[in-house]
Every structure is written in C-alpha cells, then in structure tokens.
Amino acid sequence: MQIRLQQIIPIPLQEKNPTEGSDIWGKQITFTPGERIKITAASGRGKTTYSHFLAGIRKDYTGSIFVNGAPLSSFSSQEMAVWRREQLGVVYQDLRLFPELTIRENIELKKYLAPQPDESFQFEMMAEILGIADLLNTKAGICSYGEQQRAAIIRTLSQPFQWLLLDEPFSHLDKKNQQKAIELIQKVMEIKQAGLILLDLEPDNHFSYTQFLQL
Amino acid sequence: MALLNKLIGKILQTDQGRFRAWMGTLGLGIATLLVLAAVQLQSNFNQLLKGKENRDSNAQFLVINRQLNSNNLNELTLRQDELSELKKLPQVAAVGIVQPGYFKASISSNSERFPFYTEVSFESVPNEFLDQTPEKWNWQEGDEYVPVIIPSMYLDVYNFQFALAQQLPQLTPEIVKMIYFTIHIRSSKGEMQLKGKVAGFSDRIQSLLVPDSFMQWCNNRFAVDIKKQPSRVLIKTRDAADPELSKFLEKNQLTADKEKTRFSKYRQVVNWVAGVSGLSGIFMLVFALLVLTLFIQLQIVRKQAEVQLLIQLGASPGKMNIFLFKKFFPPHAIMVLISFILIAVIQWILKTSLQRNAIELNTFPSWITSITAGLLLLCIAVVHMFTIRKTVLEQTHN
Fold it and tell me: Model confidence over B185-240: pLDDT tens digits?
C-alpha cells in the first residue's frame, strides 16, 4: 500500500513558512510498502498535525495525500473506517484510550472493531513482555502515563495494519521498557511485513530506517 | 460482536437526562394511545352502522320531501337544482322519483263476509328501490288484477288493533295475498274499476305501491293536472347517519325519516370526540418525537469525545448508527406496543359490556388500527434513524 504526499502544507502553519528546511511540507514524497521512515522535528513543526492528516482526522491542509493512488480526502466514511482499523495502525501522542475502560477492554475494543480480528498475536503475551500484564483489568484512567503508553502500543499492534504510524511513542518510557517496546514492534512488523513511520523530536536508530526526513 | 457492543455500550452509557428520557417516552406512549383510540373509535362506530351484525337495510333508504311550514304550503315540489345537487352528494348512491297518483282512488272488499271500504292513494317507485320485488310486479292493460304492495305496518295495525277491537279474525301475510279486492278510480275525466291483490309487504316505504306501468297508465288517463317536478323522492344512501346529508337536507328545508337520520347526531359527536382525540394525539406525538429527538442528540453530543474517538479508532459510522438505534429505539417501540395492547384490552372490555345490550363489536382492534400502529412504529423508527445518522455524521466531520 503506497502513500504519496503531494505538496502538503498545513493551513494553520502557512504563515510560518513551513516548507523551509522541510523534506515533507510542500514537497512530493512517496512511501513504498514496507519502508521504515524516521521523521524528526522540533516542537511546533507539526508532528501531531502530520499524523492526524495521515489518519484522516484532520483535513485542514493544502495539497493531497494519496493512498494507492486514491486521494484520502475523497474516502467515504466507510473507506476511512477500513483505513483506520485495518490498514493504518496509529499510536497517538495523546494515546487516546478510554479512561473508563480497563486496559484489556481498550485493547479488545480496537481488536474487535475489525470484522476479522487479527488473532495471530495474544495481547496478554504482549502485555507480559511490556510489563503491564497485572494491569489488564485496571481502568486506563488510573494507570500512569507510561503504563497507558505501553497499553496504547499493544492496542495498535493487536489490530491488522500495513503501515504503523508512531507519534513520540516512547516519550514516557524508561530505557529498559523502551527497548522492550522497540523489540516487540520490530517483531510484529516483520511478521506483518508492514511499513513504519516514526515521528519524534530527536534522531535515533531504534529501527533500520530506509529514509530519514526532517519535518 | 456481543463483546464489542458491550464495550461501546459501556463507553456511551450515561445516567444523565434519564428523567427527560422517561417523560419523553411516556409522552410518546400517551400520544400513540390517543391516536389509536381515535382510529378505533371511528372503526367501532362504522362497524355499528355498517357491520352485517348491526345493519338495518331500511336505514339505507330515505324518503325525502319538503319540510312544510306556513310559508311554503303551496310549494311542495322539489326543484330540479335540488335534485341535481342531491344526486351529486357522495353519500347518495341513487335517487328515485316517487310518482304519486293524480286521481281519486278507493278500495273495497269483494266479500260479503268480510266487508271493507276505504279511500286510498297510490304511489309508485322504480323497482330497484323496493325491499322485495313480488313475483308478479308489472301491469298492462287487460291484466287480471293490479298487484299492490302495502306497508307491513298496516297488517300489524289490523291484526293487533283493528281485528281485536272489531272481533275479526287475524290474517297472515299469506292469507292477505290471496284476497282480491276492487280498486275504484275516478276523476273528472271518468271512472273505472279494476281487480286488485296484495302482492307483497314493504318495511321500507310507508305507501300503497303499484307498478310504475299502472301508475303511468292511470295518470295518462285520469289525471287533470300533472306536476312536472316530484314532491317526494327516494334515495339510496351509503350512510344515512352521515352528518353532511343531514346538513344538506336542513339547508334546503327538506326532511327525511328522523328515526333513520338521528344517528347523524351521534356521528357528529363521535366525529368530534375522535377528532379531538386524534388531533391531541398527533400534537402530542409531534411534541414527544421532538423531545426524543433532542434527547438522542443531547446524549450523542454529551458523549461527543467518545463517539469521535470510536470513529477515529475505526468504528464505521454505519455500525455506530445501528448500535445507537438499538440503544434508543426499543423502549419507544415497546411503548407503542403497550399502547396497542391497552387499546386491545379496552376493545375487549367494550365488546363484553356492549354484548349484553345486543350490540356487536369486534373482539380485537380493527385492521386499520393495527395498520396505524404499524405506521406509527415506522414513523418513530424513521425519526430515530434520521436523528442518529445526522448527529453521528456531524461528529464524524468535527
């Protein structure tokens, strides 16, 4: 599944001359299936805005985003639902868990939104790896931010996807948990043969990236 | 799927606005009850008037003539425009002229054992207006006798009053039909005598009736001054109790059998009650639907963030619509069902209590009431679907 960005400029950032020094804003760029792309940007350059554009949550931009040649902005609500639950897995910076549901329920909800849930991974096993197995029946709202971040990663890995979009996914994890999360993501991506787009403040070598881009 | 629905239910669950929801649901129940009661009331009244069990065929035929008062004593005839208007009335299926005899007539007995003599007048009506057509109901010059139809009431008066008072024998209809009598006709143009015989009895027309052909022959031969316009007509009506028919008669100073049209007064009251009940029901229904629509919108908007997040995670708006429809619609559908069951219970009670007075009603609500309940249910479902779809769509685009 190919993603092509064509002269994308966020309308709210237009006055800040976002194209200057950017590999993405206002440029034409293509992500081929299976690629691992690292996008680095300082605060305020629009990382979260960019992830929302790709997820179809926001449409306040000029230019176009094409998915397999079809403009994302023309997706019907049903096509958009399929894009979000079966083709693009996102770990949002603000995590977006339901605080009144338990960690287990948050993961199950996302998993069973797909008509054919991905049963190849046991989320309990992933929770064990990331050290939150004993929190599965705890309401997300009372978990720490680091625990919620790990839960959000597991929730995304439990759904079917061809692209994984991570927005500052390890911001609240210590080195040890960060490494465990990277290894788990790496493993799942290899099995699913999925592509990766990782947005973060600083450059890193967590994955064997095929492109390094500046936002 | 059950797990998914349970989780979505948990996310969207709210205890706020419960009171308003219950009030809206109760209002909807009362509204549907009023609408269904109005429809069932009309159905019951129609059944009482037109149903086979309660039908009185005489009530469908009315003899109409001018209402006499001191100002119109010489204006007995019905005008052509009145007749045309009468024919055009939707309640009137047919109009037949009642032809009077413009000559003097009397009948007398041929039997010395059973003597009688009385002055009479004859009328004729088109055959299709007779309640029963006798075997011989035609006449032509040279026939042995003239068949006559007499009101059944005459025989009752004879048997139960006259015969008792005069110590005469009672007569059955069959015996009466065997008796020949003499008809005397006279006018300034001449006179003649003919043989006559009772050919049948009528409950519908309170006149001595002879065949149309005989009446025309007599009028041609003996009448001195034939009026072109009739003074009495017979109408076949689809509903003698229709208030519109009574209004027409009153407006044109015409009169008909009061006994047969008195139901129009009841009908007016029933129409009024059903109308008020139906209108109040419709007003309440619109109001209740408005309250419920606002309630649904409020519930969804109150959970705006959750609905948006569900959609961002990949819940399809279609699935969300179905889920929310299943959440909001069943209590309201149950309310319509309860209203219908209540109407059925009331109908059963009415049937049982009126049966003691020999008034027959259906045990169950009429098919039209059932269809109305179905339509109300459909209307409520459509309003729910439309409101949910619109509100979820707004959330999707926010």
Answer: 998 888 889 999 999 998 888 889 999 999 999 998 888 777 777 888 888 887 77
The residue among A79, A80, A88, A109 with the most chain B CBs within 10 A of its CB, best to mutate, is: A109
**CATH code: domain of residue A167:** 3.40.50.300
CB B4 to CB A109 under 8 A? yes
B310 vs A96: CA distance, rounded Å: 10
Domains identified in chain A, total number: 1
Q: Which residue has the tokens 């959750």?
A: B306
Task: Encode pLDDT of B251-307 as tens digits.
Answer: 888 887 766 666 666 667 777 777 887 787 787 778 777 877 887 777 778 888 888
Tell me the C-alpha distance between A167 and A39, whole Å. 10
Question: A8: Cβ–Cβ under 8 A, 6 or more apart, which residues?
Answer: A24, A25, A26, A53, A61, A62, A63, A64, A65
Q: Give the ipTM of the model, two decimals please.
A: 0.89
CA distance A54 to B70: 96
Residue numbers of the domain that contains A26 = 3-214
A110 shares contact with chain B (CB less than 8 Å): yes
Give the minimum alpha-carbon distance from A116 to chain B in angstroms, rounded to a whole number: 11
Taking CB atoms and an 8 Å limit, are B313 and A110 in contact across chains? yes
- Torsion angle of alpha carbons B231, B235, B239, B241, nearest 10°? 20
Read off the pTM. 0.61
> Nearest CA to CA, how far is A20 from chain B (Å)?
30
Q: Give chain A positions within 8 Å (CB) of B306.
A: 98
To the nearest whole angstrom, how far is the Cα of A88 from the nearest Cα of chain B? 10
Q: CA angle at residue B240 from B238 to B244, to 5 degrees?
A: 90
